[in-house]
Amino acid sequence: MSETKATNITWHDQHISKDERRALTGHGSAVLWFTGLSGAGKSSVANAVAAKLHARGALSYVLDGDNIRHGLNSNLGFSQSDRTENIRRIGEVSKLMVDAGVISLTAFISPYRADRDRVREMLAPGEFFEVYVRASLATCEERDPKGLYKKARAGEIKGFTGIDDPYEEPNAPEITLDSDGKGIEALADEVIVHLEQAGVLTPR
Which of the residues are catalytic? Predict the structure, then answer.
């Protein structure tokens, strides 16, 4: 699906560099790629981090899985090939945001390691942070905020991650968050600390 089909196209360099945009905002730019089972808390933590970034004057934007499927990826389903294309497109959008000097926070199950690794390869070293929001299947089923696990167990949803489709845990994520044992605000604080230690944000 990633095959380039357009012809007679030329890449145009921009007059303003990524570093110049970062200098304007006063902070680095990167992709925080939140991954984990449905119900693990990816969107909640990503939005909490975005709020903390906004409070300290840092530009950020949350790309949420459901929201993106209402627009950019509305023509994609949940087959493996469609999920791969879904993540590829989000990776490209995230890369544009990094070039614009923005901290991009993506909240997608993104169950396949290979898809996440392809996004990492799109970005320069130090610009991609895989954030594993780790929660047990039992915890996610207990939360079940959208009622999806109940439907999957009843056979109403096929190919549901964690039930009848695999979730491949990250091998070496930059950040691992214990969503079983900690609250949203505490997890968001851990992400902020990591961004400070990585030099994306200036420590306070």
Answer: 110
